[in-house]
Amino acid sequence: MKDALQAAATAAMHRALPSELFAGLLAIAADAVIAVDDEQRIIFFNQGAERIFGFTAAEVGGQYLEILLPERYRPSHRGHVQGFGAAHGHARLMGERQQISGQRKNGEEFPAEAAIQRIELEGRNVYAAVLRDITARQRVEDALHKAIQARDDMMGIVSHDLRNPANAVKMLAQGILRSGDAGSLPAHVVEGVQVMQQAAEQMDALIQDLLDITRIDGGRLRVSPRAVDAASLVTTSIEAMRPLADAGGVALSAEPVPAMPPLRADPDRLRQLLSNLIGNAIKFTPAGGAVTVQVAQSAEGVAFSVHDTGAGIPAAQLPFVFDRFFQISALGRAGGARHGAGLGLPISRGIVEAHGGRIWIESAPGAGTTVRFVLPQD
User: Fold this and answer.
1) Fewer CB atoms inside 10 A, N or C side of the chain?
2) Cα diameter, the chain
3) How does pLDDT run across 274-303, given as a tens digit for each residue?
4) Are 230 and 199 members of one domain?
5) The pLDDT of residue 92
6) Would the pLDDT of 338 be above 70?
């Protein structure tokens, strides 16, 4: 009954809108609406087409469509249209869209986006096209690409010209602390060298994060999967983060890992992923709290989780936790202080997605936070 009423309403609407009105609506459309006959001569050219191409309808009426194309495309264009007609037979709708180039009356080329449809009228083929000038959008995209290239170039400079002195500071600090003369240095000097070493390590980690997020944004983060034992990987990751947990008075442990087939993953990237998640959990867990890592088999593959007993994340912030440079304001062990540059979670998501997996967060104020991710088994 409902379909019948809709059909009746549509028929009534068409009766109320004569062909002259349809022609008027097409005439004033902002986009170019062009129709050609079987010989590809222009038979309709609306006001939008006049504005875009600079021709009047009288100037192009009866002309071949090629007049609107750059010279280099004209020899092949006629065959493309004929091929479309042969391939699509009597099909009335063509859903393909592709970017093309047009040419204005003054000879200027411009990028365009066009949709075309073949219509059979009284036994003749008519090809109708709707074309949009995307010059402004193309300029924005070109500017964006240039900005991304400039950023990538800057990251290359950062990775070389900034990382080298940071590494030099780290090595010199380590050399002083390991030397036999370190015991003879005043305590405040040793403490200062230790601070220098920590600052250089933090700088190096930040540089690595910036490089990784640049690769992720550019779709260039590469992983080298091989057979990995999930239990061993979790154990080594926990041991690497234990000094941070001990310094904060946080209990760090892993649930027993059941026997399971090896996981195909990049071990270095997976350790980086677990270190990011465990480090975040420790930073936002008050002294006396706990961080627990769990691994289990699931229908999707191998499921990992990192749970903490911290203050949790406000519901309003959950949709943004994987955004770059986003800082969670949940009160943790440091009383809500900012940690890092807010790149740990975006990088973690990039690593998971590079493995074909997915990652998400479950949290509520006062109930702690659990970060879960699943990697495919194969």
Assistant:
1) N
2) 102
3) 998 999 899 889 999 999 999 999 888 999
4) no
5) 38
6) no
Domain boundary among 100, 133, 166: 133
Question: b/e for 335-353, b at 16 or more Cβ within 10 A?
Answer: eeeeebebbbbbbbbbbbe
Distance of alpha carbon 245 from alpha carbon 274, whole angstroms: 14
Q: Which domain holds residue 120?
A: 15-133
Residue 1 forms part of a structural domain: no
* Pair of tokens at residue 312: 């949790």
Please tell me whether residues 19 and 101 are part of one structural domain. Answer: yes
Assess if residue 71 is contained within a domain: yes
User: Quick one: tokens of 113?
Assistant: 């986006």
Q: Is the pLDDT of residue 19 over 60?
A: no
215: Cα within 13 Å, side-chain hemisphere? 19
HSE-up (13 A, CA, CB side) for residue 9? 6
Last residue of a domain, one of 105, 133, 161: 133
Q: Print burial letters for 239-257: b (CB count within 10 Å at least 16), e (below 16).
A: eebeeebeebebebebeeb
243 domain-assigned: yes
Q: What does the H/E/C string look like for 321-333?
A: CCCCCCCCCCCCC
Task: Yes or no: say if 209 and 341 are a contact pair by the CB < 8 Å rule.
Answer: yes
Alpha-carbon distance of 132 to 49, in angstroms, equals 9
Confidence (pTM): 0.55
**Tally of domains in the chain:** 3
